[in-house]
Design a protein that fits this description.
The complex is a heterotrimer. Chain A has helices at residues 3-31, 38-54, 60-87, 91-113, 138-160, 162-172, 174-179, 184-206, 218-231, 236-256, 262-276; strands spanning 129-131, 134-136. Chain A is mostly helical. Chain A has one domain. In chain A, strand 1 (129-131) and strand 2 form a beta hairpin. Chain A is globular. By secondary structure, chain B is of the alpha/beta class. In chain B, a hairpin with a 2-residue loop joins strand 4 (61-68) and strand 5. Chain B is globular and about 45 Å long. Chain C has a domain at 29-242. Chain C is 72% helix and 4% strand. Chain C contains 13 helices and 4 strands. In chain C, the strands form 2 sheets. A two-stranded antiparallel ribbon of chain C has the order 1-4. Chain C has a two-stranded antiparallel ribbon with strand order 2-3. In chain C, strand 2 and strand 3 form a beta hairpin. The longest helix of chain C has 27 residues, at 28-54. Classes of the chains: A mainly alpha, B alpha/beta, C mainly alpha. Chains A and C meet through helix 3, helix 4, helix 9 and helix 11 of A and helix 4, helix 5, helix 10 and helix 12 of C.
Chain lengths: 284, 245, 332
Amino acid sequence: MNVAQQLINGLALASGYACVAIGWTVLLGAARLVNFAHGQLYMLGAFVAWAAMHRAGLPYWASIPVAVAAVGLLGAAMQRLMGRLMLEHNLTSLMIVTLGFGYVFQGAAARLFGGEPQTLASPLARGTIRMGELWLSPQDLLVFGVTAALFALIWFVLEKTRVGATVRAVAEDPKLAQLFGIDASLVYLGVFVFEAATVAFAAALVAPRSPILTSMGFDEVILTFVVVVLGGVGSVLGTLAASLGLGLFTAFFGALVSPAYTTAAAFAVVLAVLVLRPGGLAAR
Amino acid sequence: MTSPAVLACRGLGARYGASTALADVTLEVGASQMVGVVGANGAGKSTLVNALAGWSRGRPVTTGEVWLDGEPMAGVSAHERARRGLVLVPEGKGVFQELTVEENLGLVRPVADPAGRHVWTRDDVLGLFPRLGERRRHRGGALSGGERQMLALARALLAAPRVLVLDEPSIGLAPRLVLDLLVTVRRLVDRGLSVLLVEQNVRAAFEVVDRVFLLERGRVVGHGATDAMRGDPRIVEAYLGALVP
Amino acid sequence: MRSAARLLGAAVLVAAVYALPRLLGGSVLVYSTCATIAIFAVMAYGTDMVLSYLGEVSLGHTIFWAGGAYVAALLATRAGANGWVTAAAAVAAALVLAVVLGVATLRTREFVFSLVTYAAAVVAMEVAFNWAALGGSDGIVGIPRLSLPLPGFTFSGSASAELWPLALGLLVVTVLFIHRFRRSRLGLAALMVQMHPDLAATLGLDPRLVRLRVFMLSAPVSALAGWLYAYQRAYVGPDMFEAYFLVLMLTAAVLAGRRVLLGPVIGTALILLQQNYLSLGGDGDRIVLGLVLASILIFWPQGLVGLWHLVARRRSARPDPSAPGEAAAERA
């Protein structure tokens, strides 16, 4: 096993995880909402992009905004339907409703896109970049670069703009925010659309790595959950750090032990962490 | 004929399940007037101001009507009332602790139509409370109780209120700070602001308000001009002797 | 005397349900549907215990369901164990898994509990899919007839028609169990933690311990359903970990209404009847099931029972004149 190669693989994986997780953790931090349809939204992002390419004949680059827009709209529709429950803070029902939606998306996707594995063909996924003994896929480099830029942008918006302060205010105390003249339900809508749009964006970038199936999505939720527990809810930097840790863990565990059980192993690690630090690693 | 009240309510009531917190409350705050609401703990003072603002931390059922500058507030959500100028500074937690002073103040959007409202700018507000300028980058949670109250008040002024509703601003403050705060507010009233003040510190309240409403078990049991209410036996008896002007 | 009448009524109901498949023609499909309804209903009661009484969402009962089935299948095929042994093993396995998950989430927030149970189910599926010892993606086939030796005779069966009495029996026992649980100290504690957490705290109830206990108590219920299902299908595979069962359990729990004793049975029956007799195809059924689950919680959170009350109230009462302004001023 080449350590340097695994490091590179780990970084590639890490940027993928980070991109998938960021929308979810912002939503969780701002609205205390667990969106169990997250994995299916990822799957839909990948398949809408694929359909844009294979049925509408669009090039890969054009399929990305299509996927983002379509899934973003879906997210908005979900939030509008769940609006009353969100204002009531009925978190139990909200979790189950998102689970139900996710299941609907799975069935609908199977109807629309079929049950066969497909490939989201990005022109960058096929090549390799060689650096001496090490190799890297251009797609991975793209994911890494885009994720870094995305995180910088999100961090900037959250910490340095009024929009970001509004989101953080609603996250801290939605009731008090109303007295400040802030329409909390509008903020919730915005954050929900953000989550849907970013996960679709992540899908368009990461899904070319391996075949896509309408039955997929569950792994993405698990990995996102691991990242959030380890990195802290709503923390942008924490998500980055935890993704890095998880990416490296997956790469090395896969190479040293077995690629099939990496999710199980990561889950076991998270369980252990939860016993020792129930608030996650980043808890104060 | 007196000018229409800036803030008025009639028959205002609130129920939490089976228990009635507020019943049939009618009061008004006129232009450039400071009205005080006093009463024992549990008399319903906070429920009253929350009902006026269309807000609460629980889920009460409210009845009655509220008007802001003559406009009915039925069906208007809390955040919309705040935008229209019915600005409440709630009891206890009135600022965001995770946000800095700068960010707390920055949350308030400038008002589109300032007609009929009292517009305070950043500079005005920082002039009133220079301490906030010094602590600009500090998180809300790192401020002292007095500074937090100043910040809450500053934020409320930036929202260009038609009426400012203050819920027990003296809680947790040292006695000297209490009077300082209330006198500052009184000066704003003299410049045209309308204020509804709910206070448990009756002595301090009587120093600054024009009219007093006495609340007992959710009902208004007495009201009148400050001087008239000073001699009211219920107030004298409940609040440690006569309040000598 | 009222409880004697109620007992008689219940006995009559059970007898009627027992005779139902035969009355409906006695075909294989009818027996299969009835047995499956009973088994899935028992599975759903496990999740319902946590959801309706504790107010939390366990998304991991598929682990107990599938785990119970796998344990039973392994022991039946590899060790030739009889029904009692496999049942006991299924219960034990469920308890062990519940303890592991429950203790890990003992001090975490509710949503972390839900996430952990969800993740556990997905991970378990992956493990079952990959591990050769559990049959990998092929699962375990050739599960023999269920055999429950009793003094005097041996109950045995493998077809739905033969297992029907046992399935119904298991369902009845489960309902009785829930009935007792509702009145038990733990059941009342769970309700109080859900409804009045402050009051519960003053009474010294630790919500996390209550959650652990209810979770552990609910696990064997779903596991026994899985145990019986293994014999009915004569096959156990990683598909038993699929989201389908989770969504079905949740829908069955909320469809009729919260804390309705026969709720999960009614819910399961409705769902399976739709699937068996009004199917829209595999994907279409999935869409229907997901939509039903989401719609109930969004539009009719009280479930069918709540809808029934709404209709009954509208038909029997004129608008109530005694509360003026009550409807007018619901806004805070």
